[in-house]
C-alpha cells in the first residue's frame, strides 16, 4: 500500500475508534459514580471493607465509599427481629393471619421426655443481630449455630421434665429456661446474636397415641372435677360445723357466767341481810316477813273469811282486782 493510502486508512481507523473510547470512558465514569455511594435502610447497619479489611460500620442513611470495588459494603438487618422455626414451617402471610405448611418435620419436633414418653414439640426462636461485625466474621455460620444450639437445648430441657408437665403446666418454664441457655451459648461464642424469646407453638403427643392421651386427659379432668366438688362441699360444711360449735360454746359460756353471777349476787344479798339481821334482828325479821307476804299474796287469788256455822263464804278481799275496783264494789 502506497504512503498516502496508508495515512488515509490510519486516519479513518482513528476516527472510528474515537466513539468506542468515548463510550468506554463514559462507562468507567458512570461505574465510578454509581459505586461511590450507597444507602442504608433504617433497620440495617452497613459494614464497609477495604481490600477485605473492615474500616467502618455505618448507620442508616446515604454514605460514600471508594469506587471501583475498592470498598465493599455488606448490609446487616440489626433492628429486625428474625425467627427460626422448629417442627413446622410458615408458608406465608396474607397480612392478617399466617399460613403454615402441611409438611411435618419429625426429626426436629419428636423428642423424649424425662419419663420416656415421646412428645411432638414445635417452637420458635426469635432473635436479632446485636453486633453486625461479630455476626459476619466472628463465626463462620452464626445462624446455623443458633439453630443447632436451639435444638440441642430444647431436647435437653424437655428431657429433664415429665411428659405430663411438658404437655400441661411447664410450657412457660421450659420457654424461659431454653431462652436463657441459648443466649448463654451465643454469648460464649461471641457471635453477635441476641435471643429475644423462645415460644412453644404446639406441644402434643404423637398422632399414634393421641386417642389414649385424650382418654387420660378426660380422666384427669374428671378427677379434678370431683376434687373441686369435694373441696367445695368441705368448704361449706366445715365452717358451718365450726360456727355451730362456736355458738354452743358461747351459749354454754354465757349460761355459766349467768349462773355464777347470779350465785354471787345471791351470796352478796344474803350477806347484806345477815349483817342487817345481826344489827337489828326483830326489825329485819319483820321486814323479811312482810316482803315475803308482798310477794306471795298476789299469787294466792281470792281471800275469804268464813264464820263458823255460816252457810256461805263472805268475800272480803279480792287481791286479783285493783284497789279502785275493790272500793267501787264495796
In short:
This protein has 330 residues and is of the alpha+beta class. It folds into 5 domains: 1-25; 35-76, no CATH class; 82-91 and 101-205, Band 7 domain (Tetrahydropterin Synthase, Chain A, 2-Layer Sandwich); 209-292, no CATH class; 300-329, no CATH class.
Can you walk through the features of this model?
There is one protein chain. The chain is α+β, with helices and mostly antiparallel strands. It has 5 domains: 1-25; 35-76, no CATH class; 82-91 and 101-205, Tetrahydropterin Synthase, Chain A (2-Layer Sandwich); 209-292, no CATH class; 300-329, no CATH class. Helix content is 54%, strand content 22%. It is built from 9 helices and 13 strands. The strands form 5 sheets. Strands 6, 9, 10 and 11 form a 4-stranded antiparallel sheet that branches. It has a 3-stranded antiparallel sheet with strand order 3-2-5, with no helix packed on it. It has a two-stranded antiparallel sheet with strand order 1-4. Helix 4 (142-159) runs antiparallel to helix 6 and helix 7 packs across helix 8. The chain is rod-shaped, with a radius of gyration of 54 Å.
Amino acid at each position: 500500500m502506497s504512503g498516502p493510502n496508508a495515512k488515509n486508512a490510519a486516519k479513518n481507523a482513528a476516527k472510528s475508534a474515537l466513539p468506542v473510547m468515548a463510550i468506554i470512558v463514559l462507562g468507567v465514569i458512570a461505574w465510578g459514580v454509581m459505586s461511590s455511594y450507597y444507602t442504608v435502610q433504617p433497620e440495617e447497619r452497613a459494614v464497609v471493607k477495604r481490600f477485605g479489611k473492615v474500616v467502618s460500620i455505618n448507620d442508616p442513611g446515604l454514605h460514600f465509599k471508594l469506587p471501583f470495588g475498592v470498598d465493599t459494603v455488606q448490609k446487616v438487618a440489626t433492628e429486625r427481629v428474625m425467627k427460626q422455626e422448629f417442627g413446622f414451617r410458615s408458608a406465608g402471610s396474607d397480612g392478617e393471619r399466617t399460613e403454615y405448611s402441611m409438611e411435618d418435620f419429625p426429626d426436629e419436633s419428636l423428642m423424649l421426655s424425662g419419663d420416656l414418653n415421646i412428645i411432638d414439640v414445635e417452637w420458635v426462636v426469635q432473635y436479632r443481630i446485636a453486633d453486625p461485625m461479630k455476626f459476619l466474621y466472628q463465626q463462620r455460620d452464626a445462624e446455623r449455630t443458633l439453630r443447632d444450639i436451639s435444638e440441642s437445648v430444647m431436647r435437653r430441657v424437655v428431657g429433664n421434665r415429665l411428659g405430663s408437665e411438658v404437655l400441661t403446666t411447664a410450657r412457660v418454664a421450659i420457654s424461659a429456661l431454653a431462652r436463657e441457655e441459648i443466649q448463654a451459648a451465643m454469648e460464649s461464642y461471641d457471635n453477635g446474636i441476641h435471643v429475644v424469646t423462645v415460644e412453644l407453638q404446639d406441644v402434643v403427643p404423637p398422632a399414634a397415641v393421641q386417642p389414649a392421651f385424650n382418654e387420660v386427659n378426660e380422666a384427669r379432668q374428671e378427677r379434678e372435677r370431683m376434687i373441686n366438688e369435694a373441696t367445695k362441699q368441705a368448704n361449706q360444711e366445715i365452717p358451718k360445723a365450726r360456727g355451730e360449735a362456736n355458738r354452743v360454746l358461747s351459749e354454754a359460756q354465757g349460761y355459766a357466767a349467768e349462773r355464777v353471777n347470779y350465785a354471787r349476787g345471791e351470796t352478796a344479798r344474803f350477806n347484806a341481810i345477815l349483817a342487817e339481821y345481826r344489827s337489828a334482828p326483830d326489825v329485819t325479821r319483820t321486814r323479811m316477813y312482810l316482803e315475803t307476804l308482798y310477794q306471795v299474796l298476789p299469787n294466792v287469788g281470792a281471800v275469804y273469811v268464813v264464820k263458823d256455822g255460816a252457810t256461805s263464804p263472805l268475800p272480803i278481799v279480792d287481791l286479783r282486782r285493783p284497789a279502785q275496783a275493790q272500793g267501787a264494789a264495796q
